[in-house]
Design brief:
mainly alpha
Length: 241
């Protein structure tokens, strides 16, 4: 009987092999777009635990980034969506951020901004969507015999009952980044060395004492005084002789 050929049994691939293959595909895509750069995401700071700390985790972060009107966010999501579900399972967000050209720290920054705007818009949408139901419930309670408080609020909100002065409470439900005129601050003005020297000179000039008053002396009166003094001197000498 001829010898039997050994049966080759294919070993199942481990998660390390899957990760190496996914990283290789990510590297090939990066090098195709950046021929003059080498693929080295090992030095990227780790931000995945920070992103997971948000309510909803990474899924909520990705949802906010997709709705964020930003070129860097679109670049990251473009690389992320181009990967297969298997590759996303074995690749790190820091590596995908490096491949998209923004880096992990920038990913954390735009994720924070995207989450803020996303939650703000979602809050406004929920308030707008729930307001008709709230008003409808309030009106149902207002027509009842014990719905005095609901009737009062309904009539005040409709402008039928006047609102007493000092009882109005304004609640701002929207957040705006525009600055009011009162919040605007003028830019500080700086002076150069010449202007500062001029300021010091003016301050010292004001403190200088005025000169004592003296009347004007004419030329003729001064000459007459000198002649009189000379005559007195000569006369004193003649008396001594």
């Amino acid at each position: 009987m001829p010898p039997k050929k050994p049966i080759s049994v294919e070993r199942p691939r481990t998660s390390r092999v899957f990760r190496a293959e996914a990283l290789k595909r990510l590297q090939q895509g990066f090098e195709a777009e950046n021929e003059d750069r080498s693929f080295d995401p090992g030095g990227e700071p780790v931000v995945t635990p920070l992103l997971k700390a948000a309510e909803g985790g990474i899924t909520r972060i990705l949802e906010a980034l997709r709705a964020y009107d930003n070129d860097e966010a679109r670049g990251f999501m473009g690389i992320y969506d181009s990967l297969s579900a298997k590759d996303r399972q074995y690749l790190k967000l820091e590596e995908i951020a490096y491949a998209s050209g923004i880096g992990s720290l920038r990913l954390a920054e735009i994720s924070q901004t995207a989450m803020f705007l996303h939650c703000q818009m979602r809050t406004k949408l929920l308030l707008s969507a729930g307001m008709p139901k709230v008003v409808e419930t309030m009106l149902k309670q207002a027509v009842k015999a014990k719905g005095f408080a609901d009737r009062e609020w309904a009539l005040k909100s409709g402008g039928i009952l006047p609102t007493p002065k000092g009882a109005t409470i304004a609640i701002q439900t929207n957040v705006t980044t525009e600055k009011s005129e009162a919040d605007e601050r003028e830019e500080p003005t700086y002076i150069d060395a010449g202007q500062r020297l001029r300021m010091i000179h003016d301050a010292v000039e004001q403190r200088r004492l005025p000169s004592p008053p003296s009347g004007p002396i004419g030329i003729n009166s001064r000459l007459d005084q000198m002649q009189a003094e000379t005559a007195e001197i000569i006369g004193a000498q003649d008396d001594v002789q």
